[in-house]
Fold Acyl esterase.
Amino acid sequence: MTPAARTPFSLYPELDGTALTAFVAALESGDVTGLSPARAAEIAEVRSVAVFTRGKVTGADGDLLDAALWRHTGTQPRPAIVMPSPWSSLGWLPYAVQASLFAARGYNVLAYSTRGFAGSEGQVDVAGPLDVADGSRALDHLIERSTGTVTKIGFLGDSYGSGVSQLVAAHDTRVDAVVALSTWGDLGEAFYENSTRHVAAVRALLDAAAKARLSPQTQSVFDNVLANRDVQGTLRWAETRSPFSHIKELNRRQVPVFFSHAWHETLFPPNQTLKMFNELTGPKRLAVSIGDHSGPEMTGMLGLPNRIWTDAHRWLDRHLKDIDNGIDADGEVLGEIMWSKALEPRPTWPSLTERVERLHLADDGELGEEPQPGWTSTVLCGVDTPATVADKVVQSGYAEIAGRPKIYRTQDIDRTVAAVWTADPVAETTRLRGIPRLRVTYRAANPGSTFVAYLLDTAPDGTAHIVTHAPYTDLDSPPDSLISADIELQATAYDVPRGHRLMLVIDARDPFYGDANLPRATLAFTSPDATPSYLDLPLG
């Protein structure tokens, strides 16, 4: 069956392919006519020390992969970097500026388009065994064309390329360090968070691959997520493609890994990457920023100053060139705080949370200090509310970066289709740092139930910004039984201003997720003595 035509969509809405193409043309010819002075200077610098060529890498099964090589002449030993492409019809092109900057700093660099994308042959394998083999073949290609000894090797990727980079490093012992930007750790958890299908994310991935050649298995898996078929088969497929499944190999060799992520990531929610990060035992660093997928590092791809890419350079300089540049002393975690944009370093992830405050879900929509049993709040299924994850996958995050986060009008949330609890106004700025946890008990009249919980920062005028959220699905409980859900909301670093209130909203429908509810069914939330409902807030 031929898949339906997909709407063109980019995970990189601000990336200017025309400008990058002009940059590459100037790399080849030396003619910088029409380029800005900054880009022209970069072209001149890299051409003075390295030779740029396009070519083909012979990948797994003999498929030819479109590639670009920045190669130094002479026999001086030097490190090398391989850059697998993002999930984009532009292939390796988004790396053109950064690869040139690495080359100017003394690295030999190979960027290539992953199979099935842009000018590469083969079919999209979603970081499967063929992609891992391709990464090793690309490294072979780079080493064979280096005129001097290759000292140490790094893999760097954004988005799709970041997952491939981690997996190649786990399988190829020649890889000495990894930079993984806007990445994933557990692909199964990213697709089925708390057993809830991330349908908007999967649709976005399909739309962004509209010009790619998906393998029949890849197409089938994505279709199955959308149609709610063969969940176990998808999870088995995802396990192989999850760096978390191969963490023992990375830890055995103590491979240094640098992650970047966004707090409001809509493709690969941060907690599944955090799970990977916290289990790594080698040198590691995590930068988490305001925005969504690839947004925090986007300006660097455009050739503008960017702290994520600056740290990526520092990370590889430290672990491939052995330069003592101070990054070891910066702490393992750097969080950008909403909405002050202050940068807050911490020595480890657990050190973000200094104490936990528990608020109980109580009658009359209150979040209080004491448990209060005996109440019921009923939610009607099948109806969306103004409480949603975001307006658009990826794109809403760019508005956040620009200082224009989505405004929620809490007075418009219909209390017949959503349950709402509000805390007292905070007496001073409240610093949320870490992973909020929700425990809530509810009764579902039908088998199969889904809800989405949102934590909002509400101003005195009733308008709000989203702090974090999480979905939850139960597929196993019999009808009309009490279900106790213990879930982690997505990690956050958020300052709640003095006089604002925290609001917890739970509804049963969000277009970002597939739900298991029957139309017009109800979910009755409550708080029995045995399993009280509460929200744990991490404070730092």
Remarks:
- The chain has a mean pLDDT of 96.
- The two ends are 53 Å apart (CA to CA).
- The chain is about 25% helix and 30% strand.
